[in-house]
Structures are given as structure tokens and as C-alpha cells.
Amino acid sequence: xxxxxxxxxxxxxxxxxxxxxxxxxxxxxxxxxxxxxxxxxxxxxxxxxxxxxxxxxxxxxxxxxxxxxxxxxxxxxxxxxxxxxxxxxxxxxxxxxxxxxxxxxxxxxxxxxxxxxxxxxxxxxxxxxxxxxxxxxxxxxxxxxxxxxxxxxxxxxxxxxxxxxxxxxxxxxxxxxxxxxxxxxxxxxxxxxxxxxxxxxxxxxxxxxxxxxxxxxxxxxxxxxxxxxxxxxxxxxxxxxxxxxxxxxxxxxxxxxxxxxxxxx
Length: 265
Description:
The protein is an alpha/beta fold. It is 42% helix and 24% strand. The protein has helices spanning 2-17, 27-31, 34-46, 57-66, 77-85, 118-128, 140-151, 170-180, 188-192, 229-239, 242-250, and strands at 19-26, 48-55, 71-74, 93-105, 132-134, 163-165, 183-187, 200-204, 211-218, 252-253, 256-257, 260-261. Strands 1, 2, 3, 4, 5, 6, 7, 8, 9 and 12 form a 10-stranded mixed sheet that branches. A two-stranded antiparallel ribbon has the order 10-11. The longest helix is centred in the N-terminal third of the chain and has 16 residues, at 2-17.
């Protein structure tokens, strides 16, 4: 009985002293389901209560710039480098990667399956004027999509009603594409964990340009003295640990891995 009471007191004391930090993450990371695996282990190992602010990469970066979070976990290297160049973050630490994929109707009316490159696939969509859903939300996925359209020498601003920018997260955008039987670019993890696939299939992947790196950037305390640098450092140490590597690499859906850990010590 005494041991049980002492154990309960220890748990209660630990909860009282658990530190809370805010981490802005992308909707694609959250939609993957990986956060549900990692957060309980982070709390168990470090005592950190990590509160996620789930937004697109662009909004995550703005939250970091405003000092509204202690760190960000995002996936757009050019935007991350601009964040650091502006003095808003202390450094950038790569954690894991997956890839972007092109999803579309099983009938593939634009005939993108078998395309040589992602740019070639998008050119086929534009030529066919097949329905295409864009996140349109300044997320890492949206930024990548726009860079690919730029490489086609086509401007989405000139597209007709077949191109639908929905201004939504990855899950909502996939739902829209499912409802419209439309093409869409998604990260592989969100697609694999998406339950409402309806008549959509993964039609194109494998182009090196579709590589999708996730990185962790602590907010600069010189800009925002209130940020919890110790907590951000503790989370980073855990995210690059062997345990994190095992959890990330072992996270699978139907036997398919969603992320590959690539953090360096």
C-alpha cells in the first residue's frame, strides 16, 4: 500500500513539473499519424509536454518569426534557409524524409502514369485540363508544387477552372481531390494514412526532385527571450536519438514505411 501511494505521488510530482513547449508542425506530418507515436514517448523519456500547432510550412515559419512557438518542424529548405538568414532561428537540423507523389483517378485521363519526370506529368495534366487540386496554402507541399509548375514554364495563375487552389491542409485537400476525382500532389505519408481514397491511386513517384526533407529549427532566443531554449534543445536531442530513429523507421502502414530517419549525431 505504501509503495503504491509513493508511486502515485511520484507520478503526480512528475506531472506537476512537466515542462510544456510549443512546436509548429506541418499538416502533412500530423496527417501521417507519426505524432501519435512520438509524443507519448517524448513525454515519457524527457518529461516534455509538446503542444503541436498544426499548420502549413509558411504559417509555421511565421509563427516562429513572431516567437509564438519554441521551434518548428517543416519541409521547405529554401524557406527554412530564409528563416535562418533573417535571424529567426538558431540552426537547422535534418530529422527524416519521405517523398512527394502524384495522385489521380485510377483511369488516369491525363495519362501521367509512366511519365519520365514529375514536370512531364504535370504538363500532361495541364494539356488535358484534367481537374487538379492544389493546397494553395503556402505550405511546403504547395511550395514544391509551384516550383514544379515553374519548371514547366506554365503559370497556375493563368489556368482555368480545372485548377482548384483550396487553401487547406493536406487531409482536407485530399478529401477534395477524392470528391472531384482530381489529380493532386501529396506527401507519401499523408497519402498512405488517408482513409478516403475512393477512386484515387498513386500514379507517379520516384523523381529525385520529389525528395521531401523534414527539418527541426529552434526559434532564436536573441529575438524572443521568452522561448524555451532548454526544452527545444531537449526535444532536438530526443529527435536525433537512436530511439527516435527506431520509432520513425518502424512506423508503417500496410507494411510500407512512411518516413526514413536521416538525422546526423
